[in-house]
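Suppose a colleague, Dr. K., hands you the sequence of a protein chain of 215 amino acids and asks what its three-dimensional shape might be. Before reaching for any lab equipment, you can write down a predicted structure in token form. Begin with the sequence itself:
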Amino acid sequence: MCKYQILLTPVEAYFFGGEKHSKSQQGIVMDYFVRSELYPQQTTLLGVLRYYLLMKNQCLNPQKIGKTNEANQLIGKISFSYANSGEEQGFGKIKKISPLYFEKKHSCFYKENQKYLIPPLDNQFRLKKEYGEYLLEGYDAKKGYPSVLMNIVDNDSVVDFFKDVNKSPDSDFVFLQVDTVGNKKGLKGKSVDDGFYKQVRYILNTDWYFSFEAE
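The predicted structure, expressed as tokens, is then:
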């Protein structure tokens, strides 16, 4: 069975995932703050791959499935469903996909792209025993766990999620944050006092990719 590597590069600021709304006492959404997830979930990766197969085989018309039987063979009859997680779900030609990881384009120091994963939360800490209890040495509850990616090859070198002002200006990082604020317009274009919103999106830094493998 063939295995494929898929690299994804958003062409602009992207938005993945959940919204958080604040509601009035009447249950009407008055204002909201939305923040994108940093990276796509597995269901998103599966959806992208299914859409690509339909598009590549001219089974979109233009956005709806045009050749039903052929489409079913390519991607399966239904989308992934958590409700049916106990049952086997078929996705046509797609047999499995890997967890998401990140890639950094090769440079003069490396002949191949460097691969990174999100490490376990305790990856950068060692256990120590105090008063009969095991604690994470060096962990600061105020700072929380470090937001980094770990190199798959050496399991040691890490890259920060965001630019660290305390490090060298040349130090690498993965994400840039893009904030958008505004106010919903009411009748005749007037601003609504309770219609304020803020949206947080992200951009991948230069030479970084989302990556996963599929069979």
